[in-house]
Amino acid sequence: PGRYVGHLRAFTQRLLDLSERSRCRRFHHISTISISGDAIPNLSKAVFKETDYDRGQVIRNVYARSKFEAEKRVRDKMSHGMNATIFRVGQLVGESESGKFQQSIASNAFYGIIKAIIDMGVVPDITEGSVEMMPIDYCRQAIVKLMMIPESNNHCLHVYNPNHINVKTFL
Fold first, then answer.
1. Within the chain, how many helices (H) and strands (E) appear?
2. N or C: which end of the chain has fewer CB within 10 A?
3. Nearest Cα residue to 50 out of 90, 88, 85, 91
4. How many CB atoms neighbour CB 37 within 10 A?
């Protein structure tokens, strides 16, 4: 797990360095809302805003931790004058028309949970919470439109579906 985080952090750093050397006008970074973590110590409930980054949150998921570390690199460059936008995406699912999704679907935690429920034939007894899902093509379209807005420069933007589904209804 630590190696994965280190690889993404190093890869992001190389992209940032390349962006600087090539005098790129603006750097666009795709992060995840999951950097908000599993919990923030001493808070029973918290809202994680676009202006938030490190609130001392506990991040157990390796992918989310890698994105947290990569976003830190981007934020450091932004604080030193680089023009950049961070897009934090929500729970991505297949394309709206075809359902087509990532090639390595087995490594997707959300799909892994769905598959386990189907394979075991048992639905967990969950009564609270909600599920947020956004077709990847909708997310892609939103990010491209946001990239074209000059005022989005040097900001972090959450790109997700605000219409959540009750987890009990979903399952």
1. 5, 7
2. N
3. 88
4. 20
Radius of gyration for the chain, computed over Cα atoms and rounded to the nearest angstrom: 17
Give yes or no for a contact between 70 and 9, defined as CB atoms under 8 angstroms apart: yes
Within a 13 Å sphere around the CA of 149, how many CA atoms are in the beta-carbon half?
Answer: 11
Cα–Cα distance, 6 to 66 (Å, whole number)? 7
DSSP state of 83: -
- Model confidence band, residue 65 (pLDDT cutoffs 50, 70, 90): very high
Q: What are phi and psi of 27, to 5 degrees?
A: -105, 135
pLDDT in tens, 122-143: 877 776 778 888 999 999 999 9
d(CA 137, CA 100): 10
Predicted model pTM:
0.85
CB atoms within 10 A of CB 79: 9
Whose tokens are 């676009």? That residue is: 50
Per-residue pLDDT tens digits for 84-117: 999 999 988 889 899 887 777 777 777 777 888 8
